[in-house]
Amino acid sequence: MYRIATNETLTFLDKEKRRASQSISDEETGLANKLKAESGFDANKLEWKLQQAIQALPEKQRVVFTLRYYDELPYEEMSKVLDTSTGALKASYHHAVKKVEEFLKKD
Question: pTM for the whole thing?
Fold first, then answer.
């Protein structure tokens, strides 16, 4: 009985995760189309500015940001690779995101 309940719960959670990711990707597509439709929007310029923001980060924050944002590496794996606690990595990523946001807001 316990195993049946566990399997049903896992199945339900998988369905919810798929449904949520589909709605997010639909929203992302809509936002991307809206951005493309805006006059004066230059994706290359935005990408260049993002790369500048990342390069302006301190080395540790830059590594953590790149591994998490681009490679989508879980904190647990990063902690093994970088020999650092997950809490320190989360803090570094949080600070890096804030600095990148501030950099992108400047114009």
Answer: 0.60
